[in-house]
Amino acid sequence: MIFWILVYFRELILSLKINNLLAYPFFWVCSGLLLYYSSFVFIAPIFHYTFRWDNFVDIGFMEYIPNIFEIISMLFIAIGVYYHSINNYAKH
């Protein structure tokens, strides 16, 4: 998934068809997906390592980091949906 999002960003930047990238809805949606999927690349090995131990390992704040990344990625997707609904609301 990360590969396809990066390919989309590359094509979006090379095509130069979008005037304002921050007002383009799919930029925000793909940014949210990229953040969501890429965050687990770094966090998954830590969780795998700590859950394999026989003794309890308190990783503290690290338990909440996936939730923080998920909240930020959902905010990016919500911004994309917001821009899409303003531009295309009730148009035929």
Describe this entry's structure for a reader.
The chain is mainly α and 92 residues long. Helices cover 71% and strands 0% of the residues. It has helices spanning 2-15, 25-51, 65-88. Helix 1 runs antiparallel to helix 2 and helix 2 packs antiparallel against helix 3. The longest helix has 27 residues, at 25-51.
Give me the secondary-structure topology.
Layout: H1 2-15, H2 25-51, H3 65-88
Summarize the structure.
The protein has about 90 residues and is mainly alpha-helical. The protein contains 3 helices and no strands. Helix 2 (about 25-50) runs antiparallel to helix 3.
Low-confidence stretches: none
Strand content: under 5%
Q: Count of DSSP helices?
A: 3
Structural class computed from helices and strand pairing: mainly alpha
Mean pLDDT, nearest integer? 79
The beta-strand count equals: 0
The rounded Rg comes to 18 Å
Let me know the largest β-sheet: none
Proportion in helices: over 70%
**Distance from first to last alpha carbon:** 32 Å
List the secondary-structure elements in sequence, H or E. Answer: HHH
Shape: elongated
